[in-house]
Amino acid sequence: MKLAFRTLLVAGTTAAVLALAGCAKDAAPASTFVLLDGSRTTTQELKGKVTLVNFWATSCTTCVAEMPQIVSTYDKFKSRGYETLAVAMSYDPPNYVVNFAETRKLPFKVAIDNTGAVAQAWGEVKLTPTTYIVNKKGEIVKRYVGAPDFAELHQLIEKLLAEA
């Protein structure tokens, strides 16, 4: 992901601001996701689908609150070549993640980033939720930090699904 630094004068002090530049065409990082059932999937295997990659934690109240909307988004678009991959952060106890996925009956792939390597590869993700939308070519087209505007997200998914 290309990052640009800008310096701003804020109340008489200088602050460096990190801004995403050119995010629309950056390739999703090559990653291997270890799923709850022990199987693996890779970024390469997601090509050809529009994919939502959501970094989350069971201890994150915003993550828990947005999960029903992530499920309904998945249900709405899954038959049209849309995939969701929920990636639990390395600090999230695996038994909490398994319990959450089972009790909420999450219908999509759930991975645990045991080592933190996946979060690192995807732009040093530290804040949850952080959600990426990846197009069929495997390019990141949008990043949300915090809960997305789901109406806007659905419009973006529609547009990306319509692309060849």
Automatic annotation (TrEMBL):
Kindly give the SUPFAM superfamilies that the UniProt entry links to this protein: Thioredoxin-like
- What protein name applies here? Peroxiredoxin
Q: Where is the signal peptide?
A: 1-21
Species of the source: Ottowia thiooxydans
Name the keywords, alphabetized.
Signal
Show where the Thioredoxin domain sits. Answer: 22-162
The question of whether Transferase is a record keyword is answered with no
Is Phosphoprotein a UniProt keyword of this protein? no
